[in-house]
Amino acid sequence: PIYFDNHATTQVDPRVVEAMLPTFTQAYGNPSSVGHLFGEESKRLVESSQQSIATAIGASATEIVFTSGATESNNLALSGVLSQRRRRGNHVVTVTTEHKAVLDPLEQREQQGFEITRLSPRQAGDDLAGMLDADQLRQAIRSDTALVSVMFANNEIGVIHPIAEIGQICKEQGVLLHCDATQAVGKIPVDVERLGVDLMSFSAHKMYGPKGIGGLFVRKSGPRVRLQPAIFGGGQQRGMRSGTLNVPGIVGLAEAVRLSLAEMNEESQRLAQLRDQLWLGLNERITGLQLNGPQLEAAEARLAGNLNFAVDRVDGEALMMNVREIAVSSGSACTSANPQTSHVLQAIGLSEDLTRSSLRFGIGRFNTTEEVDFAVDVVATAVDKLRKLIA
Ligand code: PMP
What we know:
This protein folds into two domains: 2-8 and 263-390, Aspartate Aminotransferase, domain 1; 14-257, Type I PLP-dependent aspartate aminotransferase-like (Major domain) (Aspartate Aminotransferase, domain 2), CATH 3.40.640.10. The protein has 13 helices and twelve strands. It has helices spanning 14-20, 22-25, 37-56, 70-82, 100-111, 134-140, 163-173, 192-195, 247-285, 316-321, 343-347, 352-356, 369-390, and strands at residues 2-3, 64-67, 91-95, 115-119, 145-149, 176-180, 199-203, 214-218, 289-291, 306-311, 326-327, 358-362. It is globular, with a radius of gyration of 21 Å. Residues 332-336 have low confidence and may be disordered. The structure holds 4'-deoxy-4'-aminopyridoxal-5'-phosphate. 4'-deoxy-4'-aminopyridoxal-5'-phosphate (PMP) binds at residues 69-71, 99, 101, 151, 155, 180, 182-183, 203, 214, 334. It is an enzyme of class 2 (transferase).
């Protein structure tokens, strides 16, 4: 099968593997063991990786906390802020289309007495479906709002929210902004200064790095973000996240970020071409396709490699069973420890049927035009077959 599920996770780039290898068998010291050369070497690797990751997102090295991935980063950011005594109140603003790794920790807090406002983005049919309007956010902020959490790019429909504008509003109102940038870092330019985010989550395995390593940017300057750690122990990372550092992961993350940044411009153009080829090809052979998310022409509003669409008059489950020669996702594979229909597609107003018969493509670094032609054929053949069955 051909892999098209790059929003769920990515193949590790062989160049990333190459960079990581020495940390397994040579530079394997504990970076906290500064009494000997092994530890010192690892510590140096961690520090240079941290510096290069920080530079890539416009941060400074001490503003990066390493975690096990974006789920942990989101939890640390949200719980870390909300566990502290806050100047303002217990109100949080987020969006209905956030990842579960934001929605679920907030739901936990809601049960403890926090008030959560979940804003609804633009609905299906709108040219910018899925996008949150900055004005809507402005109106939702109250004098007791402690925190705003809005993702940068959505993992299902690829919509890119106006984070810089949202950051400006939060700054004016004196509210902390957390941004889940898991699908953005490595794909589109991300600069924490320009965006005005106070906390920002990211993860290596979405950008051709290894699984199990990610980071949280925690702003130092200005209204210092006070964060309660979630994991206590040896006091690593200035107590923010105890535990022996994942040196192979950290080195891999740094190399993944470096490569993605170096190749970003060319790569996003290439991905957009493949995406257009896929969408045109599908529409030549299949009638009644409905694009989910922003129009493809709105290049600034949508991740280049994302295509998500509903196929009417087919059963969603049957469709998935008949496209097994390609790896795509229906809804979000990230949350399918318990497969449910996509809360994102439902939140932009799709019917349950269309939600079920939607396919998500995440086109990635290793996909080719030949593979896209193949995918068109696989999907078109499956839809033909299924529609004939019900005709
Ligand atoms: N946030 C978003 C937007 C994601 O796409 C994902 C992965 N599906 C996560 C968070 C969770 O990331 P991780 O797998 O690194 O925990």
